[in-house]
Design a protein that fits this description.
single chain; alpha/beta; Rossmann fold; binds glycinamide ribonucleotide
Length: 191
């Protein structure tokens, strides 16, 4: 199963996926490309570390969504890569219907909350400010409804009385780094 990872930031989840691949824990999944919508995104460096091609793709003309010329560029590039699974790992841009139709059922997203609670931006901060005692992360299929597609799996994170936003965020990222590679491995076994 050919996997393409899309991200915008530091790429710690891409790193966890690539480490799982190196450890033989990704089953039949193979990461073939990393794509970032920011030229200086840290995620690109993980490709080099793990020997996986990584590239910046210009998402213009929009700032917060992938539509128009940029969307076509992403569609053409990912189609040429013959991707079986597209993993949004911190890709901070709304995916629009044309992209979703082109890769129907093949796009998954990682979100830092127990959806349907706290969709949208800053899922960790939203849960923290609301004072919940249990949060977690979700991997779901991407549909036209932002953070609303069918849930594939979730992992819980308990917020202890002595947690700070920083320690809570660390626990959340650790949970994500377990969950996302495990989901990819499972999907590849069914593929
Ligand atoms: C992760 O916490 C992921 O859940 C979140 O961005 C972070 C990316 O971290 N995604 C979203 O908020 C999507 N709405 P990373 O760049 O270190 O993998």
């Amino acid at each position: 199963m050919r996997v393409v990872i899309l991200g915008s930031g530091t790429g710690s989840n891409a790193e966890a996926i690539l480490q799982a691949q190196r450890d033989g824990a990704l089953a039949a999944a193979e990461v073939v490309q990393i794509i970032a919508d920011k030229p200086d995104a840290g995620i690109l460096a993980h490709g080099e570390t793990f020997g996986v091609p990584a590239q910046y793709l210009d998402p213009a003309p929009f700032k917060t969504k992938l539509e128009g010329v940029g969307e076509d560029l992403y569609i053409d590039t990912i189609t040429a890569l013959r991707a079986d699974l597209i993993v949004l790992a911190g890709f901070m841009r709304v995916i629009k219907p044309k992209f979703i139709r082109t890769f129907a059922g093949k796009i998954i997203n990682l979100h830092p909350s127990l959806l349907p609670s706290f969709p949208g931006l800053d899922g960790i901060g939203q849960a923290w400010r609301r004072g919940v005692k249990v949060s977690g992360c979700t991997v779901h299929y991407v549909t036209a409804e932002v953070d609303g597609g069918p849930i594939i799996d979730q992992a819980t994170v308990r917020i202890a009385p002595d947690d700070t936003l920083v320690t809570f965020a660390e626990k959340m990222h650790a949970a994500e780094h377990e969950l996302l590679p495990a989901v990819i491995a499972r999907l590849s076994e069914r593929y």
